[in-house]
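Final report, results section. Input specification for complex C-07:
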Amino acid sequence: MDALVNGAEAFIQVFRTAADVFVGFTTGIIPIVVVFLTAVNALVKFIGEERVEGFAKWASQEGAIYMPVRYTLLPFVAVFMLTNPVCYTFGTFLPEKHKPAFYDSAVSFVHPITGIFPHANGGELFVWLGIAAGVEIVAPDMVTALAVRYLLAGLVVILIRGIVTDIIYNIMAARKAGVE
Amino acid sequence: MQALIERIGRSVGGVVGTLFQAGRDAVDLCLKTIIPFMAFVTFVIGLILETGVGDAIANGIKGFSSSLGGLMIVCVICAIPVLSPLLGPGAVIAQIVGVLIGTEIGRGNIDVSMALPALFAINPQVGCDFVPVGLALGEAEPETVTIGVPAVLTSRMITGPISVVVGYLFALGL
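Structure output:
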C-alpha cells in the first residue's frame, strides 16, 4: 500500500514541478512578450511596407562592398520587420546568385534575434529561452548581457555564413556549368 | 473647423485601430503558438527534474557540453547534410536540446560560460529543412534551388563549428 502511495506521489510530483515552471514562465515571459509584440507590430505598420522595400532594394546590390550590408543589415531588417517565415521574401530583391547565401544568412538569424526581440520568431522562442531559463537560476544578472552577446555573435555568424555559402554556391554553379 | 476635427478624429482612430490590431495579433500568437509550446516544454522540464531521466541525460550531455571541443563535435553531427534537414523542422529538436542544456546549467552541471557556444552548437541545422521553400519565397529560379540546397547544406559543415567558436569568443569576459 505504501509503495502505491509513494508511486502516486512521485507521479503527481512531476506535474507539480512542471506546473510551477509553467507559472514561472507565464508570469515571467508572457506579459513582456505580449506588450513587446504589440509595440513592434504597431511600429512595423506605422513605418509601412514601401519604406522597408526601398531599403531592401538599396541593401541587396551586387558587389563585395555591399557584402556586410547584404549579410548582416538586410537579414536583420528582414527578420525584425517581416519576422519568420515572411522575411525570406526579401530574397526577391537580390541578384539570383546571392539568393541562397541570403537565405542561409537570414534563416540563421531567426534564433539569435529572439533574445532581445522575441516578436521576430514567436513560435521558436525556446532555443533561447530554454538555455536562458537555466542561466536565470545560476546568474540572473547575466541574462540580458547574454542576450545582447547572442545577438551580436549572431550577426557575425550570419555574415560568415553568407560569405561561405556564396563561395560554395559559385564553385558548385561553375562545376555544373562545366559539366554541361 | 469641422474639417479639422474630422481629420484629427480620423487619424486618432487610425492610430488606435492599428495599435488595437497589433495587440490582437500579439495575443493571438501567444495563445496559439507560444503558450502551447510552453506547456509542452514545461512538461519536459518537469520530467527531467523529477525523474531519473535528468541524471541520465545530464551524464550524456555533460561530456559534450562542458568543453568547446565537445560542443563542436555535437555541432558537426547536427550539420551532416543528411541529418540536418531531418533535425530542422520547426526547430523542435533545437528547442528541446536547448531546454535540456538550460536545465543542466540551472542545476550547476554545466558552466554558464558554455551557454553562448551551446546556443550555436545545437543549431547548425537551422532552416536546413526549409531551403527550397525559403528560396521560393525569394522568387529564386528552379536552377538556383537545385544548386542552392546542397550549397547551403555543405556550407553548414564549415560554418557550424565556426559559429561555436564565435559564440565562445563572444562569451569571454561575461
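The two ends of chain B are 60 Å apart (CA to CA). The first helix of chain B runs from residue 2 to 50. This concludes the modelling results for the funded period.
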